[in-house]
Amino acid sequence: MKRVYLLIMMVLMLFSAFPSRVTAETRELYPLSQWGLFSGRFILKYKDSLALTPEQEKKIERIKTAYKETAINGSSEIKMEEFKLAGIIESGNASREEIEKMIRKISKRKSALIIDRFNYHLDLREILTAEQVEKLKAFAQESRRKRQ
């Protein structure tokens, strides 16, 4: 019993090391804005100051909606797999190989979500002009200063 409990705790610690959602702390440590990467919501917040064209706005909305759907579905799949894994571990019927296979599957899905997130930001940046990206960097810096 202690062995199962220890294994469950180790698995939970493993998953907590790879959060499926980006925390505020992570955003502060690694602000994507320093690389000219912004969320669709942030871009649209400053659409008037950026003088976005109607075409740019439509593209941003489309990309934002598609990414949100992908992120929600991916997060749900991860949570379901984590739930299954916990059940298998608790049952004590799974082999080490089965548990390892499930952990690898979950980790692979989390990595895919991270890549999807970066592609989302890169896709949005491609829509903007260099001048618009620079303005957004300035808005992001100002926003960080206000929070501090």
**Intertermini distance:** 48 Å
- Kindly provide the radius of gyration, computed on alpha-carbon positions and rounded to a whole number of angstroms: 20 Å
Largest sheet: none
Mean pLDDT across all amino acids: 83
Model description:
The protein is mainly α. It has one domain. It has 7 helices and no strands. It is elongated and about 60 Å long.
Note the main attributes of this structure.
elongated; 7 helices; 81% helix; 148 residues; mainly alpha
Task: Describe the structure concisely for a colleague.
With 148 residues, the chain is mainly alpha-helical. 81% of the residues lie in helices and 0% in strands.
What is this structure's SSE topology?
Layout: H1 2-17, H2 24-29, H3 40-45, H4 47-50, H5 54-91, H6 96-127, H7 130-147
